[in-house]
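Dig into what follows:
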Amino acid sequence: MRRTARMLTGTALAVATAGLVAAPAAGADAGSLEVYPSSVVPGGQVTVNTAACGDGGTAAGDASAVGAGTFTLAPSTHEQDAIGQFEVPESAQPGTYEIVATCAEGGRRVTGDLVVTLTSARQQVYPRGSVKTGVGGALGPDPVQTAAGVAALAVAAAGGTWLLHRRARGDGI
C-alpha cells in the first residue's frame, strides 16, 4: 500500500512539474507579430497585430525591409491587441521579408514574416476540361461518337415502344 502511494505521489509530482515547465511555452504566442495576409502581391494592404505590448499598448512598426517604411500600431478592442496597417509598394520584389514592431513601453521587439508574390493566392481559378468522375465518358467528348450514341438510344427507345404496343394489342412478339 505504501509503495503504491509513493508511485502515485511521484507520478502526480512529475505531471505537476511538467505542467509548470510547459506553462511559459503556451504564453509565448503573446510575443509574436501576426501578419495578415501572410502572402501579398505588390500594392496590397497588410494588417499586423500583436498582444506583446499589453492592454492599451502602442508600438512602432517597421516594414522598411519590403520598402514600406514605418507605421504605427495602436490599441484595439480586438483581444487587447495593438493593430497597424501598411501598403506594400508596387516596386516590391518577390521574397520573404521580416516585419518588426517595437513596443513603446518596455521596448519589447516582436517580428513576423511577410511573403511577397507575383500572383495572388486569392485569384479565382476557373476549371478547364472534363471532370474525371469515373461515371461514363469512356468514349470522350468526340461529337461524332456522341451523335452515334444518341441515335442508338433513339432506335432502342422506338423499338421498345413498338414491342410494348404490339403486346398491348395482343399480337404477341
